[in-house]
Design goal:
22 strands; globular; alpha/beta; 6-stranded mixed β-sheet; 3 domains; Alpha-D-Glucose-1,6-Bisphosphate, Chain A, domain 3; 19% strand; 5-stranded mixed β-sheet; TATA-Binding Protein; 15 helices
Length: 506
């Protein structure tokens, strides 16, 4: 059964009752217990939290029973808890870190679990490798303690820390009216609680636990925030806030009901940190994140550090350097003085603080920032849907011989930090990354105009279509001897279908 437990960039996720079972949860808990016993003093407690998903609380309790039987003391949260809160709790007192049961923004049928070390950030690759290695050391029968698992509430100290980092008095005096869509997530009773506690007017949506997430997805993307957009416009609110399933990612709706992407929000918050909070430090972003941040760095004379995709790489930089703000295009952000982990609650509050300082509608603040930089922000995300053979073949060809031109312009530089990044210049680029879990190639485009970026996307598709066509012919030749023996070909052996791209301007 060991082969079904596969740790990705941030823990293990799987479908409940298929691979995510009590038996496998026990094995993961035991593997973590071995790591804790070998790396922390005896008696150091491990914290355990969980999100709003079906059975997540039961899985957390079972993990606690396994760890207690191993002699590892544990404390389980008294209710579902945001990932940034349980992460913050790991360094609030002496702990051996935390286990968080969450599948973040994944569909409702998924659950997941990840280990957060005592430094309050994502586990590094070496730590994850040790835990995965321990899976082979789990016994056939794993003992579970019969004692009651102790519980604790990390909310009060966490929200107290957040209030100390955010100028709540400034927000209150501004008179800003807020809408908040909890998306049935762990942030309910956290983000709305602190706003109400300080007297900030807030209208709330979907603030109950629902493992099916209202029939939608616990992901703060435009298509899942229509209710919030409508609320902001109907109630004439100043801003709408949202988080994902475990509250480590965030998104915002402006006063006109328009969706703001994480890329835009990172730029706005960077401006706010320097201009209004008078902070300094480096900016750390992933290879897929907007270079609008680089333009801001030039303006403010700040260093930019680029990492592979994954907040664990940002967290590592935040732990060893003076970082002003760290973020990724998928919605994760943290900043100076806080934990080296994504925090959608803190990010949302910081955005409201920015609006209070600026004294202008969010749409105007964004327009002013674009004018300062000198061009309109344009960013496009797309997926190429291939099969396993053509995905690997295409990446091999592009890696060995990158495209030399895009839309008639010369490729001036090639980055290989994570995937393949083709630069026309510092502000116009294309990132090509293979998915590690699906036969997809993920594409990220950024440019200084919509016209330019669309031409690049069209030309890239045209050039790649020719390569894929050759790969298809190669696959067909290899399969001909098999066709008489087996009519139905597997996805890995069949020729690729048409390339499908989906994406939109952010």
């Amino acid at each position: 059964m060991a082969e079904v437990i596969k740790f990705g960039t941030d823990g293990w996720r799987a479908v409940i009752a298929e691979e995510f079972t009590y038996a496998n949860v026990e094995r993961v808990a035991y593997a973590v217990g071995l790591y804790v016993r070998e790396n922390y003093p005896a008696g150091t407690p491990l914290l355990i939290g969980y999100d709003t998903r079906f059975m997540a609380d039961k899985f957390a309790e079972r993990a606690g029973q396994v760890l207690m039987a191993m002699g590892v003391p544990v404390k389980v949260t008294s209710r579902d808890v945001p990932t940034p809160c349980i992460a913050w709790a790991t360094q609030h007192e002496t702990t051996a870190g935390a286990l968080q049961f969450t599948a973040s923004h994944n569909p409702p049928e998924y659950c997941g679990v990840k280990y957060i070390p005592e430094y309050a950030g994502p586990a590094t690759d070496d730590i994850s490798a040790k835990i995965v290695g321990n899976l082979s050391r789990t016994p056939a029968e794993i003992e579970c303690s019969k004692e009651d698992v102790p519980h604790f509430d990390p909310q009060p100290p966490y929200l107290g820390s957040v209030a100390n980092l955010i100028n709540m008095k400034k927000i209150v005096s501004s008179g800003i009216k807020v809408g908040f869509d909890a998306l049935y997530s762990t942030s309910r009773g956290y983000l709305d609680h602190i706003l109400r506690q300080w007297g900030v007017p807030v209208k709330v949506l979907h603030d109950v636990r629902d493992p099916l997430f209202g029939g939608g997805m616990p992901e703060p993307k435009k298509q899942y925030l229509r209710d919030l957009s409508g609320l902001v416009k109907t109630e004439k609110l100043d801003v709408g806030l949202a988080t994902d399933g475990d509250a480590d990612r965030f998104a915002v709706i402006d006063e006109q009901g328009n969706y703001f992407s994480p890329n835009q929000l990172l730029c706005l918050l960077t401006m706010h940190m320097v201009k209004n909070r008078k902070e300094k430090g480096a900016i750390v972003r992933t290879v897929a994140t907007t270079h609008f941040l680089d333009q801001l760095a030039k303006k403010y004379d700040l260093e930019v550090i680029e990492t592979p995709v994954g907040f664990k790489f940002i967290g590592e930089e935040m732990r060893k350097r003076d970082i002003l703000i760290g973020g990724e295009e998928s919605g994760g952000m943290s900043f100076k003085g806080h934990i080296p982990e994504k925090d959608g609650i803190m990010a949302n509050l910081l955005l409201v603080e920015m609006m209070a300082f600026e004294g202008k509608p969010l749409s105007q603040i964004w327009d002013d920032l674009q004018k300062e930089i000198g061009y309109e922000f344009t960013y496009l995300r797309a997926d190429m849907r291939l099969n396993d053979f053509t995905q690997k073949g295409l990446m091999k060809i592009l890696t060995e011989k990158p495209l030399e031109t895009l839309a008639g312009e010369k490729v001036t530089r090639v980055g290989r930090k994570d995937g393949l990044k083709l630069y026309l210049d510092d502000s116009n680029w294309l990132l090509i990354r293979p998915s590690g879990t699906e036969p997809l190639i993920r594409l990220y485009y950024e440019g200084t105009s919509s016209e330019r970026i669309n031409k690049v996307a069209e030309d890239f598709a045209k050039q790649v279509e020719a390569i894929v066509s050759d790969l298809e012919k190669e696959a067909e030749k290899a399969e001909k001897p098999q066709k008489s023996k087996k009519k139905d070909q597997s996805a890995k052996k069949s020729p690729a279908g048409p390339i499908e791209t989906v994406g939109a301007k952010a």
